[in-house]
Amino acid sequence: MAAESGKQRLMTVTAQTPTNIAVIKYWGKRDEDLILPINDSISVTLDPDHLCTTTSVAVSPAFTHDRMWLNGKEVSLSGGRFQNCLRELRSRANDVEDEEKGVKIAKEDWEKLHVHIVSYNNFPTAAGLASSAAGLACLVFSLAKLMNVKEDHSKLSAIARQGSGSACRSLYGGFVKWIMGKEENGNDSIAVQLADEKHWDDLVIIIAVVSSRQKETSSTSGMRDTVETSELIKHRAKEVVPKRIIQMEEAIANRDFSAFAHLACADSNQFHAVCLDTLPPIFYMNDTSHRIISSVERWNRHEGTPQVAYTFDAGPNAVLISRNRNAAVLMLQRLLFYFPPQPDTDLNSYVIGDKTIMKDAGIHEMKDVEALAPPPEISDNNSVQRNRGDVSYFICTRPGRGPVVLTDESRSLINPETGLPK
Ligand code: DP6
Asked: Where in the numbering of this chain does the Diphosphomevalonate decarboxylase-like N-terminal domain appear (predicted)?
């Protein structure tokens, strides 16, 4: 790495990458190292304004080894998954020249140069939301930009996949399919965009972050146990998912919410059924998750056509996809009726993200929550239960865009003088 001025021998890139929620789930690998799945999956990318990872990466001849900081804490990069991603990226790196900074890096230098990676999630990691998907996708995307990797997003998705399977779907906005692929080397196991975020912009998403005391089984070990012990997963991967993938692609192409909701709910339920069919059984959902499902099912049935679809990943949090804004407003009223906050909670921190939905729901202060009437689909008002405190908070969001580079240097998380987190 050559530099004309001794001072700025540091090059950085900052990028922002969204998280995603699967509506046809990935669960089970056929190759653990390369992270190759046993079925295709489809996801919706969530708006990075509300849920995303921002990552700054830097290179300098002064760096002695690769280092990474996540949410302010240094984390180890020694794991096989990180190493696989770094190796894949370095092998595809190209010459880089930044005339303004007087920096020049030759293709072959990348093997010897070290990088610093500083990553930050704009949502609480402890919430159990898919932070690894956004994190790994952002690491790969930002390093690819820094190293002038010329591959398109699909090729980059195959690299991100080796960091965490679901990360490959975060390389695109809108609606994304991860094609399982057939090749042994995994080169054809890539993500493709089915439609961008503008294609179906009626959809509104509410996430219920459910309080949980239970230590959850990681996706990685959970799906390994499922593949080893469940009979049901074979039927799912071979017979059920291939048909659902075709139907889901059609539902998305036609913006057919009824079909979309039926498929998403059925697939979430089947994923949790194969978890139950695992030895020892895995329980990701809890009583609150089940209550949310029942309330959505009851309302959808009452309306005659689905208003909201639910889906749950490897944890108790509900992701509720509403057919339009009006349905989201009515959903939020129901959620706040069933799951009011503790009396000392600040409403402003109980419903976060796009707060205009709360305003449209007529909820401005705590007394509005207390005054909510039971939804009309409840026939016996005496049996109504309000489960105060069972939800930590709600996030209102929508389908969103894919990764972007942030050119504004003030957004960088790396101190340009020291190469360390700001
Ligand atoms: C339930 O991508 O976290 O969220 O590939 O082992 O890193 P690894 O697992 P991960 O699994 C995600 C599983 C899921 C469903 C999905 O996102 O499709």
From this structure: 18-191
Cα 36 to Cα 26, 93, 168, 348, distances in angstroms: 10, 24, 11, 42
For 350, other C-beta atoms within 10 Å of its C-beta total: 20
Q: What would the pLDDT profile of 42-85 be if each residue is shown by its tens digit?
A: 999 999 999 999 999 999 999 999 999 999 999 999 999 999 99
Alpha helical stretches, state H, 93-231: 131-146, 153-161, 219-229
Determine the distance separating the centroid of ligand 1 and the alpha carbon of 128, expressed in angstroms: 12
Residue-wise pLDDT tens digits, 326-340: 999 999 999 999 999
How far apart, in Å, do the first and last CA atoms of the chain sit?
24
- Report whether residue 41 contacts ligand 1, using a CB cutoff of 6 Å: yes
> What SS3 class is residue 191?
strand
Cα separation, 331 vs 338, in Å, equals 11
Indicate whether this model's pTM tops 0.90: yes
> 5: Cβ–Cβ under 8 A, 6 or more apart, which residues?
102
